[in-house]
Amino acid sequence: DSGVTQTPKHLITATGQRVTLRCSPRSGDLSVYWYQQSLDQGLQFLIQYYNGEERAKGNILERFSAQQFPDLHSELNLSSLELGDSALYFCASSAQLAGGRETQYFGPGTRLLVL
Amino acid sequence: EDQVTQSPEALRLQEGESSSLNCSYTVSGLRGLFWYRQDPGKGPEFLFTLYSAGEEKEKERLKATLTKKESFLHITAPKPEDSATYLCAVQKSSGDKLTFGTGTRLAVRP
User: In the list A30, B50, B57, B70, which could disulfide-bond B66, CB 3.0-4.6 Å?
Assistant: First the structure.
């Protein structure tokens, strides 16, 4: 158990709909990352938040947005869903160590199926 | 553009048959190289981080090494429970995100 929790575990929805994925980082971790894993693309970085502020953006679609709340949990919002959005969505959290070192710990993921 | 290439894509071993997985990378300003294990439908499980050429880390039957261009994950006398996909990722000095390779699917037969 990495200490990172994600809900829900599974989500089935229809095209055009909107869903929210939730992540709680490990206790004390300030950074939250969202990654998407699909069969043809592998694990792809979407977005990073640090202590409530957006820090870095990857290949995140405009239909997707995220935020990190004062209690450090994060939500990833996916709207106008398309079939191609079906994937595993992972959240990771990390703590900065001395010398800029860190380790990212991943949650169990949310499997999204868009029909 | 940063690139992480893992080989082989798939590897089948007999129990006890040692082997190595390769991760070659092209990245400017490497901060760290990460190895993860991923079981089907589960989240990646952290194994190692390597920060400088020549560094080695071990955990049970696994040993990771790093050079300036690639990393190896050596598996000694594997067991069926070592069957999983092994992912390599790099982190640049300029940011925190991880760039992943596509993984090596390892199957260990009893």
Answer: B50
Per-residue pLDDT tens for A35-63? 999 987 789 999 999 999 999 999 899 99
Backbone φ, ψ for residue A85 (5° rounding): -80, -10
CA atoms within 13 A on the CB side of B80: 2
Chain A residues within an 8 Å CB radius of B103: 42
Count of residues in chain B: 110
Say which residues have a Cβ less than 8 Å from residue A32's Cβ, sequence separation at least 6. A23, A25, A48, A49, A50, A68, A72, A74, A91, A92, A93
d(CA A106, nearest CA chain B) in Å? 6
Q: Do B43 and A106 touch (CB under 8 A)?
A: yes
